[in-house]
Amino acid sequence: MSENGKDGLYTADVPKGISRILLHSCCAPCSGAMVEEMLSYAERTGLEVAIFFYNPNIHPKKEYEIRKEENKKFAKSLAIEFVDCDHDADNWYARMKGMEFDAERGGRCTECFDMRMERTALYAHEHGFDAIATTNATSRWKDAKQVDDSGIRAADRYEGIQYWHKDWSSDTMTLRKYQISAENKFYKQEYCGCSYSLRDSNEWRRANGIPKIQIGGEHAGLGNRYFTDPIEDAQEESQDVVDEFFTQAKEIAEAGSDRVERKKKLDVYKDRRKNEKETGIDFGLNNW
C-alpha cells in the first residue's frame, strides 16, 4: 500500500493531535475503503484504529446478526479491535416514538444517528480515544451533512474528543468500497436497517414491481445477494437511483399513517418498471 492509500488513490486528511480513533461501523461493506485509508495512515504514524459496533436500529435480529458477524470477521482479518456493544433495541424504539412515518433522511434518521454517535463518543471518552468517526458517512443513501452534524454534536459533549470529518463518499472512495466488498464477497443488504426503513422500502418495491426484501444472502430465484462485480455493484448506488428513491420516499412519507393516501402515492409509480429503458435508469435491487 502506498503512502496515500491503496495504489495512491486517495489521501488521509487526519485531524491534528489524534492518536486513537474509534470508528463507529454500520456494516462491513461501508467500512472497507474507510478502514483501509485509516490503516494507511496508521502504518506511517502509529494511529490506533478500533471498530465500534452499536446499531440498535437494525431489524430483524437475523439481519442484525448477519451484519455484525460479517463486520467482526472483517475486523479480525485486519487485526483491528472490534467492540461489540449491546443491541439496545428497546431504547431505540422508545427514542423514535412519534417519528414512525418520517421519511428517510428525516427527523427519525437524525435521532438514530444521534443515538449511535452519542454512544460512540461516550465509549471513546471512557476508554481513552481522542477521535470518533462513522462509516455511515460513506454511503450515498445517507445525507452526509446529517451524519456529520450528529458526529460533531456527539464529540462536542466531551473535551478532547474530535469528530473526523471528510468526504468519504467521493467517486474514488465509493469505487474502492465496492472493490473491497467484491474481494471479500460481503453480504449486500437492501435497506438501511430499521423496521421502518424495511417497511417503506418494501412499499416502494411493491409500487415499482420489484420483489420484496429477503433477509440473508440466498434469494430464491434471484441468486446470491453478495458483492461480486465492483462496476455493477456501484451502478446500484448511482446518483440517479438514489435521488429518485428519496424523491418518492418523501412523497410517500407525506401521507403518514393514512393507508389510503399512502396507496395513492404509491400507485403513481406502478408503471415505473415499464419506463426503465426510456429513462436509462436501473431501478433494481438497491444496496444500502
UniProtKB/TrEMBL annotation:
<dbReference type="Pfam" id="PF02677">
    <property type="entry name" value="QueH"/>
</dbReference>
<keyword id="KW-0004">4Fe-4S</keyword>
<keyword id="KW-0408">Iron</keyword>
<dbReference type="GO" id="GO:0008616">
    <property type="term" value="P:tRNA queuosine(34) biosynthetic process"/>
</dbReference>
<dbReference type="GO" id="GO:0016491">
    <property type="term" value="F:oxidoreductase activity"/>
</dbReference>
<keyword id="KW-0411">Iron-sulfur</keyword>
<keyword id="KW-0560">Oxidoreductase</keyword>
<dbReference type="InterPro" id="IPR003828">
    <property type="entry name" value="QueH"/>
</dbReference>
<keyword id="KW-0479">Metal-binding</keyword>
<keyword id="KW-1015">Disulfide bond</keyword>
<protein>
    <submittedName>
        <fullName>DUF208-domain-containing protein</fullName>
    </submittedName>
</protein>
<keyword id="KW-0676">Redox-active center</keyword>
<dbReference type="GO" id="GO:0051539">
    <property type="term" value="F:4 iron, 4 sulfur cluster binding"/>
</dbReference>
<keyword id="KW-0671">Queuosine biosynthesis</keyword>
<dbReference type="GO" id="GO:0046872">
    <property type="term" value="F:metal ion binding"/>
</dbReference>
<keyword id="KW-0819">tRNA processing</keyword>
